[in-house]
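Hi U.,

Before I forget, here's the chain from the pilot set. I'm dumping it here mostly so it's searchable later in email.
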Amino acid sequence: MSFSKKVVSQVREEFDRKLSQKKSEQQARISEAELRVPELISVNAELGKTGIKIFKASFGDPSTLSERIKAVKDENLALQEKRASLLAKAGFGADYLEMKYDCSLCNDTGKLKNGTICSCYRNALIKAQIEMSGFSRVIEKCSFDNFDLNYYPDKEKMAEALEYLREYASSFSLSSDSVLLVGGTGLGKTHLSASVARELISKGHFVICESAENIFSNYNKERFAQDESDLICDKYLECELLIIDDLGAEAVTQYSVSCLYNLINTRINEGKPTILSTNLSSNDIRKIYNDRITSRLFGEFVIIVFTGNDIRKLKK
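Structure:
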């Protein structure tokens, strides 16, 4: 897995906090029950010594080891039955003093007994990574399967685009091509780039998917950051795949153009792929951005052209 360090740290803290909270809740139930049924204090104390008793029983004559272990287990079982009876008489459920886990597979630790991560932990990582991507709502509703080719006059051409990006997500690696999605408004560029993000994140890849406007706004904020805690743009260079949506919709300034060049050029030099989508034509791109950027876009990126009519209008 390659989830971002920030996401892994965030989820680990959430699981540790949840487990700590559940232990506190369990202790509160134990205190409540022992207050109402004082006899439980001695029973719980004896049950708490079970591990020590088994350890002590492991020493001595090997020929009688199984008998000694069985005696400890029988005593433990009798104590559990006594505790259940005391709880029942006081109106408590038999499992009132037990830990209340959300996941019975890993007991909310995030790890299974064999050392692998639990499905609940992986799902939490995926959810956190999607939220961090910046396009959480879009990613959650977009997939390759719900991309409808029936809205396109040239179904064959768009089917090729769909298949290319589906295969791109399926076989993704750091050696994957960078891709430039070009076409008018509402032709599905965001849908397909979000579908790529959705699939890769589900596999544990570190993907950032944000609008150009948001990205360069963040660079501008970081420009005036007071300390390192305000630095928020490292993720754009660190992620395995950066998806920049709607290039050209941002406020184009000398600084934003400089940031864009640095972003694209650095990722190319480091062998990290980028997906860019834009409503601009190739001529508009050349007019708005400098030669250093356009030479990278048209020389280093695979270009996919989207054609047709605004699907959002057609759906209405």
